[in-house]
Backbone:
């Protein structure tokens, strides 16, 4: 049987994981991609997927990864490393492509 405190904690964790994909503001987007705000604004003018939410700029981390993959000429999204991300699957895929001489570009 769950207590109210445990239910609230779980609900907060779920909400946090949903919001972790959603970036709000130039600073959050720039921090996620590791670039200055001015670069983010220039990339947005050239097609980076952002949306305006009132006076705020928002972006999805998943959409940004797909965009970076397309810009790099890859068929797969680029995964931006974060503190809590396990990159072993991406490393294995990249090594497999390199060993097989697979074409990474479109």
Residues:
């Amino acid at each position: 049987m769950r207590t109210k405190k445990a239910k609230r904690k779980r609900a907060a964790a779920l909400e946090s994981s949903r919001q972790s994909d959603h970036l709000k503001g130039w600073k959050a987007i720039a921090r996620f991609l590791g670039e200055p705000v001015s670069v983010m604004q220039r990339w947005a003018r050239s097609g980076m997927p952002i949306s305006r939410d009132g006076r705020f700029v928002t972006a999805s981390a998943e959409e940004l990864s797909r965009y970076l993959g397309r810009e790099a000429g890859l068929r797969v999204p680029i995964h931006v490393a974060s503190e809590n991300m396990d990159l072993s699957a991406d490393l294995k895929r990249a090594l497999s492509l390199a060993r097989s001489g697979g074409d990474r570009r479109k």
Remarks:
- Confidence is low (pLDDT under 50) at residues 13-18.
- Strands lie at 22-24, 51-53, 56-60.
- The CA atoms of residues 29 and 35 lie 9 Å apart.
- The first helix runs from residue 4 to 20.
